[in-house]
Structure formats: C-alpha cells, structure tokens
Amino acid sequence: MDIKNFIQQLEAEFEDIPPNTLSAVTSFKDLEDWSSMHALILIALVDTEYDVTLSGDELMACHTVIDLFNLVKEKSTTL
Predict the structure, then answer these.
(1) pLDDT of 79 strictly over 80
(2) CB-based contacts of 45: which residues, under 8 Å, 6+ apart?
C-alpha cells in the first residue's frame, strides 16, 4: 500500500469528493461535507480493505490523510 493508492480509495469511497481533491496533508475532517457518517464509512473502508479495526478515538486523533495512512499501516499485519 502506498499513499497515492490510499488517497484514491478514499476519494472513490466518498462520492462527494471529486478525484484529485485529497492530498497527504489534507485535513479530511475539515472537508466541507465531513460528518459522522463519513467517519463510519471510513472506519468500514479501512476494516474491509486493510483488515484493520479503528476506534472512533483513533480516527479522531488523526488530523490529515497521512496521519490516517500511517495509523492503518502501523496497525496492519499484512502491509
């Protein structure tokens, strides 16, 4: 897994985020339409795609896409 593919998966999962909107330093929680529903979708995506379980507190501790990427990478046993 690399950050570019991770970003593409995030953008594909959220229909309201146009392609090439996110970068590693994007504060995903500051996106215009960010909501608790997006948080749940993100937790489910990470669980499904990377077999990594994230808690709400872990997600809230992440500020940027790279923070989330590093957390998933750290918790993954297959990456």
Answers:
(1) no
(2) 9, 10, 13
Query: What are the Cα distances from residue 79, in Å, to 12, 33, 49?
Result: 21, 30, 11
CA–CA separation, 43 and 20 (whole Å): 21
Read off the tokens for 3: 């950050």
What is 3-75's CATH superfamily? ACP-like (1.10.1200.10)
Q: pLDDT tens digits for 17-68? A: 888 989 999 998 888 878 898 899 999 999 999 999 999 999 999 999 999 9
Name the DSSP letter for residue 77.
Answer: S
